[in-house]
Amino acid sequence: MAKNEKKDSKNVSMPSDLKYLNRKRILQIIRNEDFISVNDISEATKISRPTIKKAIQSFEDKGLVISVGKGASTNAGGKRPGLYSFYCEKVILCIYLENERIYFTILSMKNECIREREVPFRYGDTFEKFQDILISNMYLILKESEICYENLYGISLAIGGFVERNIGIVRFYSKAPEWGRNLPIKAWLKELFPKQVIVVENLVRTAGRSLLLEEKYRNKRMAAIYTGAGISACYIDREVLTGRNALIGEIGHMTIDYSDEEVCSCGSRGCFEQMVSESRILNKLNENTNKLSCSTMKQWVESEDIIRHLFEEADKGDELAKDVVSYLAEMFSLMLKNIAINFDPEIIVMQGKYAYAGEYFKTELKEARKKAKFFPEETASKLYYDMRPLRELQKLGGYQELSKRFFDNPELYEEM
Ligand SMILES: [Zn+2]
């Protein structure tokens, strides 16, 4: 990223790689702390104090760092060190669509939430109506938070469907077929916000990208399984992978049982998403009326949150709930096996509904995965359950993408 942008930025003298890396590191350390002294930065980075002082001066000139007074002296009678803090007026707008709601969040460059909005929309409405709702609320949230356009650095829009992020086109959104094909959302936003960085991306890949903010997930080969209304995955090999037709990660349509009777919206049979759908779970519960009549699941068959209740009842020992959870665990183990033989990730992260799976599911899944004999347990991918709400992950994913672009820009590390 840094290298490409170096080529792109004209009229800027090329920073030496070392200066770029040193200054980037210094700014990173200042960003991570509430306030910090030159000495502390020097100790943490082994960069000389004069170099740090020069860098801080340059960051102050650029409006990225401010002096925030003096700290306590380290030895008796010693000089009190000057303290510095990251300060930047630029903000990021993250937008995320799911379940007929649009969520808007303004974040600072330090990932602090400045303002949020949530508005309903309907998939059945026209694309023009959706555009109207989107744009009026974007203007509204900027106005409410008193952000001027110059200070809006970028906009991240996370949406379902087949999204070609390079050109920002939504090829097709199965939930809103009326919208038609090849929606040029990025080009439309760029016309309205010509100075801003615009990212239009699939919501599963946006949520997956949020993991890159954490040290334990960085520089790893990972698959993040997104379990919301549907099931899909984000494949990451240091960067988020998409593929020629943005198909990488469409694990909901992985064939698990071709002899299955139900035909999926993709035209195939036995797709993973259908094998574990809520209606399939209900069918399994209703298969044996005698069993259901003596099961604690009886009270939940009408519930909107049936998966959560199923996990809870299985954990409490209900036999029918345990049967269905074992079935789900088996389906997940087949899906994970297919991911392993195609992608072989080090880490798999479960996000969304299945992140709240109970202990019974986790144990059953562990057992079912052992059946895949060709990879020994100790080298199988590590499975994590990420219980943060999907909405939170969308915000973090949008922040990760835009803040990375902002802080990778070599102009930040050059003299004015
Ligand atoms: Zn399918």
UniProtKB/TrEMBL annotation:
Matches recorded under CDD domains: HTH_ARSR
Gene3D superfamilies reported for this sequence: 3.30.420.40, Winged helix-like DNA-binding domain superfamily/Winged helix DNA-binding domain
Key words, A-Z: Carbohydrate metabolism, Xylose metabolism
Family matches, as InterPro entries: ArsR-like_HTH (IPR011991), ATPase_NBD (IPR043129), ROK (IPR000600), WH-like_DNA-bd_sf (IPR036388), WH_DNA-bd_sf (IPR036390)
Domain of life: Bacteria
Role according to the record: Transcriptional repressor of xylose-utilizing enzymes.
Family the UniProt entry places it in: Belongs to the ROK (NagC/XylR) family.
Protein name (record): N-acetylglucosamine repressor
Species lineage: Bacteria, Bacillati, Bacillota, Clostridia, Peptostreptococcales
Gene giving rise to this polypeptide: nagC_1
